[in-house]
Amino acid sequence: MYSWDNPGDRVSIAQMNSELQHAQLELLSAHCATHQLRLRFSVDDLARFGRRDLLRKSVQSATALSEYYSAIEKKIPPAEGAAENLSQLSEKRISEAISKVSTYLREQRDHYAQRASPLSNTQKALMWPYFSASLLDRVRIIELRGKRIPNPPFYAEARALGFANLPEWTHMHSLTFLDVIIFNESLTDRSLFHGLVHAVQFEVLGLERYTELFVRSFIHTRLQFSVPLEAHTFSLESRFVGNPAHRFSVEEQVRLWVQQGRY
User: Fold this and answer.
1) pTM confidence score
2) Is 38 in the same domain as 122?
């Protein structure tokens, strides 16, 4: 068993955590892909028409992973400062969290807007009519090229309350701050579409309502990809990638979800 008191073990512990982080990112990717299946197909249809070999392998992998991580979970000591039950956070704490996130998103938007650029005519042509001309004219983008947006300063407080699955901003392809989209990695058609969907959500819902829906849903699900705002974005992104010839209005889809109360 490793020990921090052994200098030789510290290198191994650092390597272990590096590999753990990589595994966690792969698991998040698999969770996202599975969530897309859940959104589009029922359990009955998958069981009846899904390829048997793929279903069995998927079930075996998921079961093995569940057993492995459940065994680890049983040995994890209670987190310091996490005594407060996340499901019973006071309304005051939730309101404070919403305010902090909303203020931070606005600050980041104003900060990056100063050096962001408009979409090129080629990019506008590719993204129309998924998005309105007015939105495409208003949105600004920036590629950080070698740099990445760090996690927000309020993450330390959130982790102290027990939130262990906060979205890692440094690992995201893009981040949308209202009408400014930041790319941690090279801009692609897919990542641009994803960022623009969030821009539409901000436009339709407004900053305060968007933030409230995201924060309350994350507190409930504790996982980014289970937040309806994020799940809908990935669903529309899949439609964009899967059938480029079939155009649709993202704004209509977002307004439909708002009317149906699905956010």
Assistant:
1) 0.73
2) no
